[in-house]
Amino acid sequence: MIELDGPRFGPAAGGRPEALVVMLHGVGADGNDLIGIAPMWAPLMPTVAFVAPNGPEPCDMAPYGYQWFSLQDRSAASMLAGVQAAAPVVNAFLDRELERHGLGPDKLALVGFSQGTMTSLYTVPRRPTPVAGVLGYSGALIGADTLAAEATAKPPVMLVHGTADPVVPFQAMAAAEQVLTSAGIPVETFACRGLAHGIDQDGLRLGVGFLKHVLSV
């Protein structure tokens, strides 16, 4: 199995971290795409370490960057198979990072963007023990039909999505909220008015508030 790695930041206070934030990028990007947020959040969470692993596969739709799974075929079956293959790789990375820092899963939060959100929302509820939470930007829920039956962990989720997103439809947030709620997973949602496929200042502000709360830092 491929071992993930990527850029790291913090803890800003130095020493051993009290908590860990793992950031999963979108398709065609890499860990550097999201680790740039860490210096903005770190002053508010100085005891938290951040890591943004590169996806396990080179992007097959661009000459650079990585992907968690292929999006060349966007059928439900193909995307489900893709995220099912990515989940064990992500889980192995999460377990290794927790062991590395001597932290329990209650001190781990995931932040996803786009395909990274899809991967997080599939993987995390199916872990044997819950992490502290999932913050998902501009994503969607894959594997909705089986989530209620397969969910072994139900950590809180915050979803943030731009109303003008041309890549992942804004309606995906409400669809994910409905399924997650039905599975007993607590969800908060926030619509960023006029935002395309990205993260704005409101999203960053809400996100760090969520992370501070669920990680108790």
Automatic annotation (TrEMBL):
Q: Which family does it belong to?
A: Belongs to the AB hydrolase superfamily. AB hydrolase 2 family.
Gene3D superfamilies, A to Z: alpha/beta hydrolase (3.40.50.1820)
Please name the InterPro entries in this protein's record.
Answer: AB_hydrolase_fold, LYPA1-2/EST-like, PLipase/COase/thioEstase
Can you tell me where the transmembrane regions are? none
Report the protein name in the record: Phospholipase
Q: Which organism is it from?
A: Thalassobaculum fulvum
Q: From the Swiss-Prot or TrEMBL record, what is one GO molecular function term?
A: hydrolase activity
Question: Phospholipase/carboxylesterase/thioesterase domain: from which residue to which, for each copy?
Answer: 16-212
Q: Tell me, what's a Pfam family for it?
A: Abhydrolase_2
Q: Does the keyword Protein biosynthesis apply?
A: no
Keyword Transmembrane (UniProt): no
What keywords appear on the UniProt entry?
Hydrolase
